[in-house]
Amino acid sequence: MEYFGRVVLAGLLLLFRVGNVRGAEVVNGLAPCNFPAIYNFGDSNSDTGGISAAFQRTPPPNGQSFFGKPSGRVCDGRLIIDFIAENLGLPYLSAYLDSIGTNFRHGANFATGGSTIRRQNETIFEAGISPFSLDVQLWHFDQFQERTSEARNTSEDSGKLPKPEEFSKALYILDIGQNDLSVGFRKMTDSQIRASIPDILDHFSAAVQQLYERGARSFWIHNTGPIGCLPIYRIYSPPPDPGLVDPYGCIKSHNDIAMEFNRLLKDKVMKLRSELSHAALTYVDVYAAKYGLISRSNSQGFVDPQKICCGHHESYHVWCGQNAMINGSEVYGAPCGDPSIYISWDSIHYTEAANHWVANHILDGSLSDPPLPITQACHKQVHQL
């Protein structure tokens, strides 16, 4: 009954948001965009079931706080992309790779956990890296767009597919890059990682240009978060010197590189604006939102940001939802009692509560360039009043 109640509530909220978005007020002299669909490209921060469908299904307790069962997300509930869909009055995105119960009428999600911008020479099994890098996700989108146009003319399931003319009216979200830095932390010196960033972002820029050539016009681009604040870097590596961490337990050098990545990403977005004359590109400072939460965790009702809700990460490590033999006994990576007060779900991914907090701080446009809410992200710039 609890799960049923959540579903009903979500449905009511969605209906409210549909009406609210369609009747949204003019902001900065701009009308709401009324996006008919979302197309998302990214990694596990926005994967709603892609890697789970392609390989092993995401196990419980993932999904326990909202869906009542595993939903393909590495989280106890919803991700930022889910709150974006709610805000725009659209259904949650089905993963492109999932063949069961999918509906692509209002968009599709090409993100997969472990994805990188630049293709890697490692495999998902040895390093947590997805074979579905950004270029592969674009191949998937190309095929999706082409086959959708063909299928709507012949398929009885055309009601589950987007209308071809709506591709140019949709919102295109890119939330990727964290894993490119993660690979670098394992394999390179800090100077080598910094030197690799321009090439990574050249690949990113090429992806945006390809989407533009395919008709995409409205882009919502997330920068990468404070990767040095992820607890995994404190539990699976030797303890860093106290002078190398900030007051919130974040590794300074990792965050410095993330900020350098973001600075160059913003420069790249500015350049793309001058090159793609009909595109509206919004740069979203997710780093600021996430670090704002981490640095104010106590005042926002959360525990220490280095505490992990799911799994066992003290004298030994058992991954969230997994079983391991420890000293002859089987140990389960169980969840905490109340995920709503934790920021970290499993040492890498955020809890639903943290995702909700971050979403609330980016969707209004206060951390965006241009400073427009997501409902106005089809507009190229703010009109001067």
Beta content: 5-15%
Strand order of the largest sheet: 2-1-3-4-5-10
By CATH, the architecture of the domain at 35-299 is named 3-Layer(aba) Sandwich
**Helix fraction bin:** 25-40%
Which class of the domain at 35-299 in CATH terms?
A: Alpha Beta
What summary fits the major beta sheet? 6 strands, mixed
Shape: globular
Overall pLDDT confidence: 90
Secondary-structure element pattern, one letter each: HEHHEHHEHHEHHEHEEEEHE
- Runs in which pLDDT lies below 50 for 5 or more consecutive residues are 1-23
CATH topology group of the domain at 35-299: Rossmann fold
What Rg is obtained from the alpha carbons, in whole angstroms? 20 Å
Quaternary structure annotation: single chain
Number of helices: 11
Termini distance?
Answer: 51 Å
Strand tally, please? 10
Structural class: alpha/beta
Signal peptide: 1-23
InterPro entries: GDSL, SGNH_hydro_sf, SGNH_plant_lipase-like
GO molecular function, one term: hydrolase activity, acting on ester bonds
Protein name: GDSL esterase/lipase At5g14450-like
Describe this structure in words.
The chain has a domain at 35-299: Rossmann fold. Mean pLDDT is 90; it is low at 1-23. The protein has a six-stranded mixed sheet, with helices on one face. α7 runs parallel beside α9 (252-275) and α10 (286-295) crosses α11 (352-362). A hairpin with a 2-residue loop joins β8 (323-326) and β9 (329-332). The protein is of the alpha/beta class and 385 residues long. The protein has eleven helices and ten strands. Belongs to the 'GDSL' lipolytic enzyme family.
